[in-house]
């Protein structure tokens, strides 16, 4: 079906992430694959299905991303957990034009919790309910080089910058800010009175910036 080649090449990378976020391939792979590729006409013949021939709408993306992150926010975590494959995939799309081969090929990156796991677990332990928080929600994640991540240890970025002003150059801090996206690094500091609702608001507000940047990367 050569006439469909260009549309498929353009749309499949979009649907790959969108389908993962929507859990489209969570069931029977063979049946799902057949129904995605083929549609049966009234005469019993099969034709190529058109599902992936049209670019997904921006609203479809907004719905999928918001629903997915709301599920992330509902998780009650009391300790460090593995970053989900969904989140790792989304970060690859998000950082495609932020961390580039041309500029960053010699760097090794880690996934960083902006509100550090240590800070959050201490807050959870000090709370009356000791109920878990969505520690590893996407709104709390960013990429950071292993060098800076190792130097700062369990400190949050703003606290590390304030107490180690000469360890990282101003030019390097500008790159870190690019990787963090939002908020300003100086604002990412520990507070002993930080509440669970404030953390959820932090993740929600930051994810809106992430979402818009991702959609821009995808051409919306």
Question: What's the short version?
Answer:
The chain has helices at 5-22, 29-37, 58-73, 85-94, 101-104, 117-126, 146-152, 157-163, 170-180, 196-217, and strands at 38-40, 46-48, 109-113, 141-145. With 220 residues, the chain is mainly alpha-helical. A hairpin with a 5-residue loop joins strand 1 (38-40) and strand 2.
Number of beta strands: 4
Biggest sheet layout: 2 strands, antiparallel
How are the strands of the largest sheet arranged? Answer: 1-2
Q: Strand percentage, roughly?
A: 5-15%
Rg, please?
Answer: 21 Å
Through-space gap between termini? 27 Å
**Helix/strand order:** HHEEHHHEHEHHHH
Q: How would you characterize the overall build of this protein?
A:
A hairpin with a 5-residue loop joins β1 (38-40) and β2. The protein is globular and about 75 Å long. The protein is mostly helical and 220 residues long. The relative contact order is 0.13. Strands 1-2 form a two-stranded antiparallel sheet. The protein has a two-stranded antiparallel ribbon with strand order 3-4. Helices cover 52% and strands 7% of the residues. The two termini are 27 Å apart.
